[in-house]
Specification:
The protein is an alpha/beta fold. It has a single domain, classed as 3-Layer(aba) Sandwich (Carbamate kinase), CATH 3.40.1160. The chain is about 35% helix and about 25% strand. It is built from eight helices and 16 strands. The strands form three sheets. An eight-stranded mixed β-sheet has the order 5-10-2-1-13-15-16-14, sandwiched between helices. It has a four-stranded antiparallel β-sheet with strand order 4-3-7-8, with no helix packed on it. Helix 2 crosses helix 3. The radius of gyration is 17 Å and the shape is globular. The chain starts with a strand and ends with a strand. The structure holds adenosine-5'-diphosphate. The site of adenosine-5'-diphosphate has 17 residues, from loops.
Amino acid sequence: MFVVKIGGSKGIDYDAFVRDLAQYRDYVLVHGGSSQLEEIATKLGKPPVFVTSVSGFTSRYTDRETLEIFNMVYAGKMNKMLVEKLQHAGVNAIGLSGLDGRILEGRQKEALKIIENGRKKILRGDLSGIIERVNTQLLKLLLDHGYTPVLTPPAISYEGVAINVDGDRCAAQIAVALKAERLVILSNVPGLLRDPQDPQSVIERVTRDQIEAFIETYARGSMKKKLLAAQEALDGGVKEVLLGGARGEAPLTKTLQGMGTRIC
Ligand code: ADP
């Protein structure tokens, strides 16, 4: 059993990814959609707003309208695009968001403590949160009957409100809850890079104890969240987390063979 997360940034070859993935059995797919979200939200006159927390993590500020566009793009366009490609490749995929059947349940953040122009500020009304529970019954039911779940944020709060959650951490939580052996996170970069500008500078191996230091030294932007997700997965019992690139042919197979960053 493994969980694979495919990113949503520019440059990912989804056809090649699905061709490769279709050869495997017994997995759950989680996906992103950031570049499509940016494009469509901008076309709709509502470009994304990013904020930086006091602890240095970047996230999207999600008001109600943004959340609706988020649903359109993630649970609509991206999710059905992947389900269609998988079905075309002979995989009986079923697309669901964390809202459906309360698969991904969590807590809405009360307020965001952010840094804006060097100053600390409290931001309210953000519809985002942290997943605290993965309700695996529905996932197991589907897997047991030969369906392949294709999952996406948002999650649902205990009060029944949709909340935006980070896709990488969402994949980590699912891997933990399903007792997956491996978590594979594929994106438009070939792994954790020593120099984000240099795709040749992949760091091949990271131990659990190095993660925090590497979040500080090498990772910028959303790569920090991937490392945090890796840490959460390992602490939850997942044996290894692999970060790999998805720009070319056989991205999953190559990553499983050790082409990216192995964290264990
Ligand atoms: P996705 O949306 O596909 O999940 P992201 O775009 O959020 O992926 O995260 C990957 C991005 O992280 C890369 O495109 C890269 O620009 C950025 N990044 C920052 N620091 C690093 C690093 N040290 N190694 C690799 N990528 C990095």
